[in-house]
Predict the structure.
Amino acid sequence: MAGKLPGEFDLIARYFAPLAADMPGALGLEDDACTYAPMPGLDLVLTVDALVEGIHFLPDDPADLVARKLLRVNLSDLAAKGAKPVGYLMTTAFTPETDEAWVAAFARGLAADQQEFDIGLLGGDTVATPGPLSLTLTALGTVPAGKALRRNGACAGDVVLVSGTIGDGALGLKVLRQDFPGLASADRDFLGHRYRLPRPRVELGQALLESGLVHAMMDVSDGLVADLGHIASASHVAAVLHAFTVPLSAAASGLLADDPTLLPLLLGGGDDYELLLTAPPAAVPALVALAREVGIPLTAIGEISAGEGVRVLDRDGESLDMAIGGFRHF
Amino acid sequence: MAGKLPGEFDLIARYFAPLAADMPGALGLEDDACTYAPMPGLDLVLTVDALVEGIHFLPDDPADLVARKLLRVNLSDLAAKGAKPVGYLMTTAFTPETDEAWVAAFARGLAADQQEFDIGLLGGDTVATPGPLSLTLTALGTVPAGKALRRNGACAGDVVLVSGTIGDGALGLKVLRQDFPGLASADRDFLGHRYRLPRPRVELGQALLESGLVHAMMDVSDGLVADLGHIASASHVAAVLHAFTVPLSAAASGLLADDPTLLPLLLGGGDDYELLLTAPPAAVPALVALAREVGIPLTAIGEISAGEGVRVLDRDGESLDMAIGGFRHF
C-alpha cells in the first residue's frame, strides 16, 4: 500500500460497492465488467466527461460537491439528448495525498445525487496516479429508439431558446476566486453554488424530446456563444443571438449593471449546463408552457437563418465583438 | 491554446473522428454523447480501465502500442465475460508536453486494433492535465441475454483451467527495464512484446460462453494466484493451484530453469490477459478441444473444493509460500 488509502479492494468494498447495491447489472462490482440491457424500443445514450484537479476543480473544493459536479456534467449531456439517466461507470485516479476522508465525502456526494436522479453505479476502475487527482465518468441513459436529440437539426427560420439563466457558473468561479469583494453574501452563495453544483435539466430534456417539437439541442458547457456556434456549424446554418434577451439571474443582472464589460464573460464563460435548443416559431408557445410545467423558464434568445457563424447583437441591432470565446481546453 | 497540440476541436476532427467513421451511433463525434442499441436478446457488457503514464506505461513507450494496450486490457475484460466487442468511448488527458506526433501515432494504434477486433470509436472527452498523461477507455460488448460469464460460479469439484501461457507479461516488464542482460534477443523481443501488446482472448471467450460448460471465468490481470483468489472468494470456495502445471512459454521456462526464485513473479506478476476459468471435470476434454479449434492452448492447473483461499502446491504436494501477491494499485 502506498499513500494514505486502504487497498484497492477494501476501498471498493467500503465506499463504492454500496453505491452499486441497487444495480443488478453491476454484479456487486465483483467482476471487471457490468451488464445492462435497455428495454426493447429504447436506444442507449452514452457520454463521458473527465474532471482534473487544478483544471476543472480546486484542491480545496469539498469532495462531495466534486463528486456531484462530475455526475452532473455528464447528466447534462444526457439531458441534452432527451435521455432518461440509468447509471454510470467511474474511474478514479487517486494521488498519494488523497486520504480516506476525501473518498468517504466523495462517495457521500455520489450517493446523494444517485437518490436525486434515480441512478446507480454500474462499474469502474480505481488506479493510482502521482497526481493530479483525476476523475472520469461514463453515464448511461435511454431514449426512444432513433429519437435522441442532436445538434445538427437546426433549420433556417427556427427560434433559439435557452433554459434557466446564463452566466452564473462563470461568475460563480470568479466569486470562488475572491473576485467581486463588494458582492452581497447571498449573491456570492448563489453564484458559487451555481458553479459548484450545476442543475442538469434532465426532466426538461426528456419533456422536450417527448414534445417532438425540437429541431436541435445541446447543453451549454463551453459558453453560450460557442455552443450556439456548434449547433450552427453542425446544422450548416447561421445563428443570431440577441444579447439583451439572454436570461440572467438577479445576481448576474446586478453585477452586469455595475460593470457592462462582464457581458462577454456571461455569454462566453461556460459551465452553465442549461439546455440550448432550436424549434420552429409556431412551436415556441407550447415549449415555453411545457417548460413552465417542469418549473424551469425557457426563453427565446435568437434565430436561425441560412448561412454560417454566430452574430451577437445588442439592443440596437449592432454586432457585439465577443472578446471571450468559449472555454477551450488547449 | 496551451501546450504543443492543436485546439481540442481540431484534434478531434483530425485524429479521432476518422476512428468513429463506421459507427453511426458515434454521431460523427459532433455531439457530446453517442447512441447504441444492442440487438434484441442481447445484453450489453461494459467495462472501463485507465492507464496512467509512469504507472501503467513508460513515457518512452511507443504511442501506438500504448493505444493498443489501452484497448486490449478492456477487450480482455469483455473476453472474460464471453462478450463480443462492439466499440468504445475514450477520455484522453494530454499534458503540455504531448505533441501532435504522439497523438497521431496513438490514433494509428487505435485504428490498427479497430480493424483487428472489428470495433469502432463511439465517443469521448479530451481534456488537459498538467500531467501525467492519462487515458481512460470504456469498452462495450454484447452477450446473449443473461449469459454473461462471471467469477462467482465456481463449484467444489471443478477443474481450474487457464489459456495461453502465464508470466510472460511480468517478465516482459523486467526485460523492458533491462533485467536479464544475458537473455537471447529473440526471447527479449517475445517477452517485451507480450507485456506491451497483450492478446485478449476475445474469440476464445465467446466460444467458451457458447459451450455452456464454463462455471466461472475472469481474465488474469492482477496475477494468476490473486485472480484465482478472486474466483474462490466470489464463489465461496477454495482453490488449489499446481504450480508445476502452469503453462509457460519457452522463454519463461528457460528463465525459470536458470532462476527458480522467479516462480512467485510468474504466478503473481500479472499483466497476462489470459482467461482463467473453472468447469466440471467431465467438460474439460470438450473445452480443451474447443480452444484448440480457436488456436489457443487451454491447460488444467488446479481444482476447486469446499472451503476458502488459494493453496499453491509444488510437484511434491508441498505448499509454496507466495512472496509476491497480485499487483495492487495502493
In short: Chain B has two domains: 8-144, 159-313. The radius of gyration of chain B is 21 Å. The longest helix of chain B spans residues 63-80. The first strand of chain B starts at residue 34 and ends at 36.
